[in-house]
Every structure is written in structure tokens, then in C-alpha cells.
Design a protein that fits this description.
heterodimer; A: 115 residues; mainly beta; seven-stranded mixed beta sheet; four-stranded antiparallel beta sheet; B: mainly beta; 0% helix
Amino acid sequence: EAQVTQNPRYLITVTGKKLTVTCSQNMNHEYMSWYRQDPGLGLRQIYYSMNVEATDKGDVPEGYKVSRKEKRNFPLILESPSPNQTSLYFCASSPYRTGGNYGYTFGSGTRLTVV
Amino acid sequence: DAKTTQPNSMESNEEEPVHLPCNHSTISGTDYIHWYRQLPSQGPEYVIHGLTSNVNNRMASLAIAEDRKSSTLILHRATLRDAAVYYCILSGTGANNLFFGTGTRLTVIP
């Protein structure tokens, strides 16, 4: 089944403890992206990647890192999480580097709580 | 990025058609109109997209106004499973992002 898989689904952590949220897609998509969703603010893009070793900042990149060493994987790294990064995170992928005529496939989400 | 305007909420009776409107008066010639929906506790799900012509797929139909300044997502027979937040989004060729607004929360009444 074509899908985007995120892990973990739920995570509670303490301030300052490094964590990684994994994202993997099995559709050979070039484009991948991370979003966070907060009440009243909708979905906001954190980082995106056009292809392997090609990443760029989205609208809210502060406090996050990403890497794209393989086409299928796009992990989100929080080096020193803070409570304001408590949120619902979604990974998405799309067939090609340009938008417009291609739909995104989203993962099921990771609910992160930083205490 | 051009913006879209949707009603905050709508209701529909089960098994009746639903027409979800979207206004996008500042759409550019290269913007595609995308619709996504988000079911409770799930990630957004692609529904349909189009450029100029009306589009149909197994999930829904998309009716695009001739001047492209508005569009309507049509669910032909609403089911309880269709209760979700529906997002109308414009995406231009070369875009790196989808800008999600607040969407329309659809309630389906049994």
C-alpha cells in the first residue's frame, strides 16, 4: 500500500532532550515536507526537501533540523525541544519537485508533548 | 500566494449531496485548485484537484467557475465518514508548499 509512515504516533519528552521523528514513504516521491498543526493556526510548513541532499526552510523552521540522505526517508530532528514545540506534526510527500498538478500524501501524524 | 475563502462550517443530512464552496478571486493562471480533507485524528487526505475543467473521481467532483474565481467541491452522497474539515488550496506550478487555511468543518447528520 502506498503510504507515508511516521513514527512514533505519540511522544512525551522533557525539555532539552534530543529527539527524532521519522518519516518514510514507499512511493519513490521526490518531494517531502514537514508541517506542524496548532489550534487556530492551521498547518504550517517547517522544512521541505526537493530531493536527496536538497532541503530548505519552510515558514517555521526555528528549533528544527531535517536531513534527506535517502529518497524515502525525511527525519525531523529536535536538538533541544522546548514546550512551544508541543504540537501535532505531519510529514507529506509528492511525486515531483514542483507543486501544482500533484497531490500530497500525508502521514497519520505525531503528537508531541514537551514538558 | 493567492488566498481562498471558505465558510467555517456546514451541515448536511446523511445520503444527501453536499456542495462545499470556495472563493479564490485572486487566483493566477497557473494556480491549480486542490481540495483536501482532514478526518478527526488523522492527517490531511487528498480529495481532488483541477485547473480549468470540472473534474470527477471516486471521492468527489470539482466544479470550477468559468472565470476560475470560485469552485465547489461536490460530495454526491454524504456519509458519516465524510464528516471532516475540508480545505480548498491554491497551488501554483513550482510551489514548495500548500497553504492550509482554516477550512470548512462539515457535519453530517444521521
